[in-house]
Amino acid sequence: MSTNELNGKVAIVTGAGRNIGRAIALALAGDGASILVNARSNRAEADAVAGEIVAAGGKAMVHIGDVADAAQVQAMAEMAVKHFGRIDILVNNAALRREKAFAEMSYAEWREIMNVTLDGTFHCVKPACAPEEERRGNHCQHRRPERPYRRKGPGACGDRQGRDHRFHPRAGPRPRRRRHHRQLAWFPA
Fold it and tell me: What does the alpha-carbon distance between residue 60 and residue 150 come to, in Å, rounded to a whole number?
């Protein structure tokens, strides 16, 4: 159900080509926000999401870029401001996951995940969230996996079947639990 609560607002949704990112982009558009759909490399998926938004009467544009690359993120933010005039909502949804046990993962694979999950969040927040006094009413939302990934067969660490293992560190973005929460996510009462 559309409430048009977000009419006139502009949202960037990273990792919006599929799954949760797609659902978030469609929900925000359904509430009236203009959406910049970001995907790392799959233009067809991103174009499909933007097409759904436009077909439903909303405004959307696509940016293909890797959030782990600060220059590509800066270009994404500039594109949103140039096309829509501002950035009101940032949803840091982009993430990587490897379909392998943690014990089998190389350090290079781990760094690739952290570059997207942690560094990508940093790169996106910097250009999208102005100082607090300039961004009254703006929202930065960080989404992280809510459940661990399960591996079939022998466990990731030891012999237990289906052992849980998480691919995000405890130090990752955790709104409302970290000291910088007030700087990264301001939600009006």
Answer: 35
Q: What is the pLDDT of residues 78-136, one digit of tens each?
A: 999 999 998 988 999 998 887 788 888 899 998 998 999 899 998 998 887 654 445 55
Q: Model pTM?
A: 0.72
The structural domains of the chain, with segments of one domain joined by +, span 10-184
Rounded CA separation 37/43 (Å): 10
Q: Would you state the structure tokens that stand for residue 93, as one six-digit string?
A: 């949804």
Instruction: Report phi then psi at 131, rounded to 5.
Output: -55, 150
What DSSP string runs through 79-97?
HHHHHHS---EEEE-----
Query: Residues 6 or more apart from 109 whose CB is under 8 A from it?
Result: 98, 100
Identify the CATH number of the domain defined by range 10-184: 3.40.50.720
- Hey, what are 189's tokens? 């009462």
